[in-house]
């Protein structure tokens, strides 16, 4: 499990290049795959199959039937661990991101996992993309993130108190914490 936590922290400050935008990742959530009841991969299904493969692939799913969410599969293979990209700061392609999210303040363009995917133009066609390759969605260099904070994951009902959400402390793009109303009291 420590691998997924280390890789989650390592994604902070990394640049995600996607469909005409570049976004510095400012917030993530780690999911421990087969060892984590909150993970989509806790039970193997056709939707989660990509998570059981090699690391550094993009796992994209539709949330609430309307938003896409982007995750980085971190491996190891068959463990199915992944990191949800929760928020970022658009540093290139600002006009493209604004067109995708009209009327939204710049610091909120990629705040929240569905908003990040929309600003970046990521959808189900990107499922399985090799993020270390040179395709239309890829991970670039990393800026030193500075101070990093940790806390519980957003909106999960199982293992809701695990401090597996990481963010760049004080960054305005970080989304608000919302505990699931269905999560048991801690």
TrEMBL record:
The keyword Coiled coil does not apply. SUPFAM superfamilies: FMT C-terminal domain-like (SSF50486). Gene3D superfamilies: Methylpurine-DNA glycosylase (MPG) (3.10.300.10). It is an enzyme of class 3 (hydrolase). Its EC number is 3.2.2.-. Keywords: DNA damage, DNA repair, Hydrolase. Signal peptide: none annotated. Belongs to the DNA glycosylase MPG family. This is Putative 3-methyladenine DNA glycosylase.
């Amino acid at each position: 499990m420590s691998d997924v936590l280390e890789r989650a922290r390592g994604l902070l400050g990394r640049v995600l290049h996607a469909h005409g935008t570049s976004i510095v990742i400012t917030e993530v959530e780690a999911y421990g795959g087969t060892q984590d009841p909150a993970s989509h991969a806790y039970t193997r299904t056709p939707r989660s199959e990509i998570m059981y493969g090699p690391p550094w692939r993009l796992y994209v799913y539709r949330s609430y039937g309307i938003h896409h969410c982007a995750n980085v599969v971190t491996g190891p293979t068959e463990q199915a661990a992944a990191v949800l990209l929760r928020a970022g700061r658009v540093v290139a392609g600002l006009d493209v991101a604004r067109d995708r999210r009209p009327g939204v303040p710049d610091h909120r363009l990629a705040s929240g996992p569905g908003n990040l995917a929309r600003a970046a133009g990521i959808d189900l066609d990107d499922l399985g993309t090799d993020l270390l390759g040179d395709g239309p969605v890829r991970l670039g260099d990393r800026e030193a993130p500075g101070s990093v904070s940790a806390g519980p994951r957003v909106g999960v009902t199982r293992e809701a108190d695990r401090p597996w959400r990481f963010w760049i402390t004080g960054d305005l793009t970080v989304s608000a914490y919302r505990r699931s109303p269905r999560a048991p009291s801690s």
